[in-house]
Each structure stands twice: as C-alpha cells, then as structure tokens.
Amino acid sequence: MQSSTQNFSSTNELLNRRSVLGPAYRLFYDQPLELVKGDGVWVEDARGRQFLDAYNNVPVVGHCNPAVVAALTQQAATLNTHTRYLHENIVRYAERLLDLFPSGLDTAMFTCTGSEANDLALRIAGEFTGQRGLIVTENAYHGVTAAVAEISPSLAETAPHVRVIPPPSQFAGPPDAVADRFAQAVDRAADDLEAKGIGIAALMLDSVFASDGLYVESSNALATAADRIHARGGLFVVDEVQGGFARTGSHWWSFQRDDCMPDMVSMGKPMGNGHPVAGLVLQRHLLEHFGNNYRYFNTFGGNTVSAAVGLAVLDELERINAPTHVHDMGLYVSNALDRLAQQYDCIGAVRGAGLYWCIDVHDPSSDSASDARIAESIVNGMCHAGVLIGTSGIHGNSLKIRPPLVFQTEHVDRLISTLEQQCKKLRA
Amino acid sequence: MQSSTQNFSSTNELLNRRSVLGPAYRLFYDQPLELVKGDGVWVEDARGRQFLDAYNNVPVVGHCNPAVVAALTQQAATLNTHTRYLHENIVRYAERLLDLFPSGLDTAMFTCTGSEANDLALRIAGEFTGQRGLIVTENAYHGVTAAVAEISPSLAETAPHVRVIPPPSQFAGPPDAVADRFAQAVDRAADDLEAKGIGIAALMLDSVFASDGLYVESSNALATAADRIHARGGLFVVDEVQGGFARTGSHWWSFQRDDCMPDMVSMGKPMGNGHPVAGLVLQRHLLEHFGNNYRYFNTFGGNTVSAAVGLAVLDELERINAPTHVHDMGLYVSNALDRLAQQYDCIGAVRGAGLYWCIDVHDPSSDSASDARIAESIVNGMCHAGVLIGTSGIHGNSLKIRPPLVFQTEHVDRLISTLEQQCKKLRA
To answer: Does A2 map to a domain?
Structure first.
C-alpha cells in the first residue's frame, strides 16, 4: 500500500526494482506513471498528481466503484469457493448475463481472463467441428495463451492452420462495399484452407476490430461474414473482450450493430471492473461432444466472489443505463472531434462510437500521411497535462480514447480541451 | 448472497437452474452441497449444516481469512490497475516470492490461473529451445487451456509432440530404484521424440504427481529426471500448483525434497487463498528471446489487488511458519493413518506428506485390490457425517485429504474419527 506523498526518486528506484519481472513486461509513457489511487474517472500518482483516465476500459463503472468493492468485500468475507459446489451467485450471474444476449445464446461458462475465454472457444470449436482451421483479421489480438497467441498476428507469428484477412475499413467505400469485400476475404481464406486440406473450425472476430485500428460501422460486415463461415461448416465466434458491456453504445454488445447471430461470444476485461472475471456464452448444442468428452473446471472461474463482483458490475451498468448513456456520450465526443478535425491539420481520420475512439494523427509540417512519433508525443503531452489516453493502430499512428463508461460531458470537455492544447502546440 | 436458513428444496431448484452452465461442469458428492459460508477450516451449507473442510487446498490460510480479506478490501478500495503502470505491490510480491526459491530462480511473471502459468511456461520453453517436444507423466493434469489440456492425459488425448511416462511410485522398490526407473523412462521418451524428429522442449512434472496418485518421497527422482532432460537440451519445468506453498511440509516447494534446480516453477491455486492469482518463477536467461520477441500483458495478472492479496497470503503462511507447522501436522496424520491401516482391512496403501494424503481403499469382502465404489461411498458417507474429503487416483480408488494448512491436531482427530466410523461400517 502506498502513501500518495511518495516522491519521484522512489518511483525511479521502483522502476529499477521492477526488473524482477523480466524483459517481457512493458510500461506506458515516456516517464512511467506510478499510480497509487483511483476514484471514478480519476487516478492519482505517487507525486500527488491527478489524472483524468480516458484510457482504461477495465474499471468500466469507475475506479474503486463503491458498490462493486462492497459486493467483493461482502462475498470474500462470507465464502469464496468453486463450481463443484452449488451456489446461487454463479447461476444468477449466468442468467443475468444471458438476459443481455439473443435467446439462442443460452449457456454461459466462466474463466478468469479473456485469453482463457477465447482459448476455451477454440477448444469447443475444434471439438464440435472436428477441424482446426481458423480465420482472423490481419492485426487481430485475442490473448496470450499459446493457442490464442498463434491466432493473434499483432502479437506473434500465426500458426499454419490460421489464415488472416484484412479487416473491414472505413476507407473501403460505402457500407455495402465494405461488407462485400470482407465476405469475399472470408471466402478466399476458407478456399485456401480447404485447398491445403485444413478443415474450417471458426472465424473469430473482435467485434470492434480494436487492434486492427477500430471498425464499428453498421455495414453488416459481421453478418455477411457469419453467413459465409456458416456456409463452410465453420463457427462464428465473436470476441467482445474490447467491444462488450455497452462500450460502443446503443447495445450491450458491439456485434449487435449488425443483424447477426454468433455461435459463441467471449467476454473479459470490464466484466469484473478489475477483478479477474471473464467468460463465454454460447449455443448449448455446441457443447454436446465437449461436455461428454471433457469436464471443465476453472478453479477461480465463476467462483462465488467473481460471480458476486460480476453481478455488482451488471447492476451498476444497468443503473446508469449504459447502452443509452454511452450512446449519448458518443454523440458528444463525435461532435467535439469533428470540430477539432476541421480546425487542426494534425487530426486525420476519426472513427469510433460510444466511448471507444481512434484518431489518426500526423505532423502537419511533414509529408507523411500519419506518424507514430506524433501520436506518441501527443499521448505523452496529454499525460503531462493530466489526461491519460493511449496510442493504437497497426502503425501506432492513432490516438486511442477508451475511458470508463461513467465518463460525463464535463470529462469529455476536459479531454477535448487538453487534446486541443496539443494540437495547438503542433501548429505553433 | 445467501441466507444460511435457505431450505433444501431450493437447493434442488438451484441444481435445475444450474443447467445454464451447460454439460461440462461437474459437482461433488451424491447429494451436491450448496455451501453458503466459510470460516477457517469450516464451511456451512444452505441447511445450516457445518462441515470440516479436509479437501480444499485453495483457502490455504483458512476460508475467509480476515487478514487476507482486509488486504483485498483495502487495495480494491484504493486502486485496481494493471502492470503497465508502476506499482509497489507487484514488485514487492515478486521479491517476496523469489526469496522463497533458490537464487537461480530470479524472475517472476504473473497470471490469473495455474493453467495460464503452465501455458506461459510452454510458450517460453518453446521459444527458448526452438523445439516442441514435451514429456509428462501418464495421468498428469496441468490445466485447461488448449496447449496445456493436450499435455494433460488425465483430461484429454495428448498431442503428437507429447510423450507420457509412468510416474515414480511407492510400489517400485527402494528410493534409488524408483529414481533410476524414472530417469530411464525420461530417456526412453526423449529417445522416441528424437527418433520421430521432434526436438525436446521440456519435461513438465507436477512436484507431487497429484493426479497420478501422489508421490512425495525423497527418492531424488526429480533430480535424476532433471539431469536427463538437461542432457538432451530440454528444460525442467516443475508444476507447483498442487504441491507449492508448503503443502507437503518442511519446504516451501515440494520439489525441494530433492536436490534439484528447476528452470521454471509454476504456481496457482493457494496463492491468493481463492483470489485468482497464479504465476511463474524462472531463470532470467530463458526470457532473452521471449522478452525481445513478445510483450507479455495479462490484464489482471499481478494487478495491484492480486499482488496485495498474494502478499497477505504470504504474511499469513509465514506467521504460522507453514513449512514447520505442516511438517508437524503431517507426522500427526501419518501416525493416525498407520493405526487405521493396521486396524481396518479397507485401508490399503497410504502415501503423503504434510497435509496432502492419498489412501487406497477397497472392499474387504471383495477380491479386488481396490475399489472406486468403496472410495465414493466413504467420501459420501464422510460428507453426510460432516467432513469433506475427495476421491483421487487413476482408478478413483483413493481417498484424497488435502485440507487448508491452518488445520490443527483437533481437526485431524475429527477427520480420523469420522473416517474410522466409515471403516467400521465396511467391516460390519
């Protein structure tokens, strides 16, 4: 536990001591932040500086949400045990979650991380179809287990049974053309798998194509892609780890912007507001073989505490009417970003919905269309000015804005004015 | 949240509603228990019945340990964020954990589950050696991710790059002979992998061979096996998810009964006393390639709350001087079980150390050497009599005793007297 009066020299000492974690861990910002407190949309560092958090999608109902902390505390002090005993919490949580999905998605399984949820989806798809072939987008990220890392081209080399396709893009023309082009890409990948004698297990798509640079348009690209994979006997698996729980507004799940029905939907990050809760909802018939051949036991997945926390997060999201609130906030953000884009040359293409936005940026004094260095400098400049955002995009040339969903208009105003200061600096 | 006055008819209703989890979930006992409260080594069901918990290894410092719940609550109310910001907790936790290992194991990485820790070990071993071949014991269980399930013969079919070997066994003669035989098995598996052109990545062993029926003798089987795999260029990975944190007494880690040095050690279950905390400690040089080629980010792994909980669990284990306490309790259990074995024909071979014991049982009126039905009936009978244990062994013919480490002699007395009642029933 930290005192918020700790000084900066101890932050440097901490940075040195952190080598105990080895070389695979990364830190944000040119001067790494030592955060010590969180409250709603605000965090505080060891020097006592306050930051508006416009980046973190995990504390979806606010850092240290009191109702969630109370539920966590109460259940942790009462009973923390696993799914081999009956307990009301996991059943009620499964029922509450499934109420947010179309009725064909009738079964819920619980893990601790989105990686585990996607990994389980792959196991079930493989068992159901008897095939291994998988199709993902070309800069997809689905997690860190071995099976999921090898279908995550943004992280690692893909395996021989994986085909990558270009994601749908705002630059690819009108919605119908985007959907058509994407469906054709699915077909080509499926053709190639079949030509190599690799049967098709599934198409797995991040519902917002986050690591591909964000695509949230209602072009029916998801629906047409689902049709194509189903025609090949493969499953349509939607990864809602980034897009889920009303992140893009209007709906609970980003796939719902299209008229499509996934076979499985994975969820993670915001599910427990920071507590390790993740899961998979799916159509029951997919488990017929898997459930007979394998038991599934995840020691902490869906334990009594995780389920209590998950329920409290759902309560809080419903209390703020998250789909509507986030939709409204999205319109407010959109208008503000449109104004900036008209006024400042450094702002390029803008895309997003609800409270997930990507902004391509570039150096107005340079010829290059976009620039990762400029994105980095804006993100660091905003951090120094007390607002946390991140970079994104295949080339790292986009700003990523993805705050807790309890963001209000005054927080958007602060975010936009701070971003505008950075734009002015670039023009100066 | 449950009232402990809930009646049994609602337990049946809950059982029906639980079908929302699909067919891959399992429950314990012929009449599944609906647990609603936990306190130390005791749990209570919805009918208000108290049970002595002699089975659960996760709540290692006791169900709802107040110091652990306090640490969880305090940190969850202060800040819950991830490893891309600096924080004292994860660094201090890594330092404290590594203090419990031999000095060559100098780096710690954090996940949420033991499955994820083993999965990460496989990724690192594959990257370091450039090979895929893995050797495990014939009824091993290392977890539920796709990569780990396929090296877990107790759960699923093993993959073509996996070889299984018989575990060391108390029935295989004197310690030297056991170690020799086991080393030869490693050599044969390695020969076979090499003959098939499959390079050797690692030998992964559960330090107590839990799902193989338990083997905790100090025969140096681990050390000789480690030498053999190292001679082939493979890594020696020890899975301490079951055996770790003083479970078998005397040492913090069960591998320490032998004079051996693992390259990597995975940990899980008891690490957070029920909070999803798991991890991997390893020799830094193994990460040279992995850390350059891949970033590692596990959203909840080693977050500020998980690390606070992990630290509180270590504090509690150190407060009770767990290695010594568990060693002493193990002697007390051992004496009591020896007496039962002498008095009752249904008790066969007994093996274990500290607070992990397996007891082979059989029907004295039958010719079969051991009997899964008898084990089931004893376990259910003890449950009805208020003591929780489980079954184990390849054939399900063993009783598994694996209580929280805060077990005291009076709890052992209660456990043994209840077991003795069951033995008397079988003799009657």
So the answer is: no
